[in-house]
Amino acid sequence: MKKFYIGVALLSLLGLADALYLTIEHVTGQTVRCTILSGCSEVLSSPYAVVAGIPLAARYSGLAQITCRTSPTRVAIRLLSGK
């Protein structure tokens, strides 16, 4: 069970970092570097990347922050800190 909590915490932090990166790139208008696939900038600059004036990456950033603050992540932080 300890590995599950640590995995959830790491995935939520990774998702938060990715969402923040995409939000910053979208707001500043910079092109996104794609290392595996092509077309990342086209997706980020499409009209479907914004809903009600808010970039989807920013919305996901909020969801990732909520995930980072939920109990599985808090348990993982306690387990990693030894408390």
What does this structure look like?
By secondary structure, this protein is mostly helical. It has one domain. 67% of the residues lie in helices and 5% in strands. The protein is built from four helices and two strands; from the N terminus they run H-H-E-E-H-H. It has a two-stranded antiparallel ribbon. Helix 1 packs antiparallel against helix 3 and helix 1 packs across helix 4. The model has no long low-confidence stretch (mean pLDDT 76).
Task: Supply the key terms.
single chain, mainly alpha, 67% helix, 2 strands, 83 residues, two-stranded antiparallel ribbon
Strand and helix layout:
Layout: H1 2-28, H2 40-44, E1 50-51, E2 54-55, H3 56-68, H4 71-81
Antiparallel strand pairs: 1-2
Helix pairs in contact: 1-3, 1-4
Summarize the structure.
The chain has helices at 2-28, 40-44, 56-68, 71-81, and strands at residues 50-51, 54-55. With 83 residues, it is mostly helical.
Radius of gyration based on Cα positions: 15 Å
Strand runs, count: 2
Low-confidence stretches: none
Please give the alpha-carbon distance between the first and last residues. 16 Å
The neighbouring-strand order within the major sheet is: 1-2
Kindly estimate the percentage of residues that lie in beta strands according to DSSP: under 5%
**Nearest-integer average pLDDT:** 76
Q: Please give the domain count.
A: 1
Q: In one word, what is the shape? A: elongated
The ordered string of helix (H) and strand (E) elements is HHEEHH
Distinct helical segment count: 4
* Helical proportion, percent range: 55-70%
